[in-house]
Amino acid sequence: MPVDNLPPTVIACPDCDLLNRVPAEGTTDTLLCARCGAVLIRHKPNSIERSLALTLAALTLFILSNSFPFLAMKTGGFVQETTLLTGILELWKQEMQGLACLVLFTCVLVPGLQMIGLLYILMPLRWGRRPAAHAARVFRLVQEVAPWGMMEVFMMGILVALVKLGHMATIVPGISVFSFGGLIFVMAAAFSSLDPPLLWQRLDLRR
Question: CB within 8 A of 183, min separation 6: which ones?
């Protein structure tokens, strides 16, 4: 299927590994594998622009999540506030170093790395410039660490803790709880808006 006279490219089917020749870019169709019918390319209009906007929104929520109180506990006139980072520090002080490192890695480092990596890739492409140096390696890293981003699991743990601690003290959610919850949905939307085949084509410096 010729599209705008662009040379075809080859994509391996994610299900059966058949090599399919598809248009380089510009198609508005959903392309399927010739053998098994698996989706090879799904058209996502304005993918780079939407992903960049959502990543910037996610970065703003990420900064808020790590800058303001996460939870406050009120009991007997005593109020104790905690942020996400101080909560991780408390886990370390209570000799739960493994859990502290896991929370730091999956809820702070990985999301931060993903957002910075996406901005590094998408910003030059958005303004029609050549891809940044090592952009392809950065995108591969962003894809590889994606399974380690477990913010939604951490949020579920927080909700369970709120239920269990509710009878012991008054728990007041802070700004960070709401921004963290919003961050989960915005990050999911940013990755959903990405068009990986299109990005790999744009990041090919041989073109």
Answer: 58, 61, 62, 65, 111, 151
From the CB of residue 100, how many other CB atoms can be counted at a distance below 10 Å? 18
Phi, psi for 41 (deg, rounded to 5): -135, 130
Q: How many C-beta atoms lie closer than 10 Å to residue 176's C-beta? A: 21
**Is residue 111 a contact partner of residue 153, using CB atoms and an 8 Å limit?**
no
**Residue 173 main-chain phi, psi, to 5 deg:** -65, 140
For 137-156, how does the pLDDT look when each residue is reduced to its tens digit (9 = 90+)? 999 999 899 888 888 888 88
The pLDDT confidence band at residue 2, using thresholds 50, 70 and 90, is very low
Exposed / middle / buried, residue 111 (Cβ in 10 Å: 0-12, 13-18, 19+): buried
Residue 48 CB contacts under 8 Å (≥ 6 apart), including other chains: 122, 125, 126, 195, 198, 199, 202
Model pLDDT, residue 116: 95
Residue 93 exposed, middle or buried by CB count within 10 Å (0-12, 13-18, 19+): exposed
**What are the pLDDT digits (tens) for 4-60?**
444 457 778 878 878 877 765 555 567 788 888 887 777 777 888 999 999 999 999
Contact of 88 with 102, CB cutoff 8 Å: no
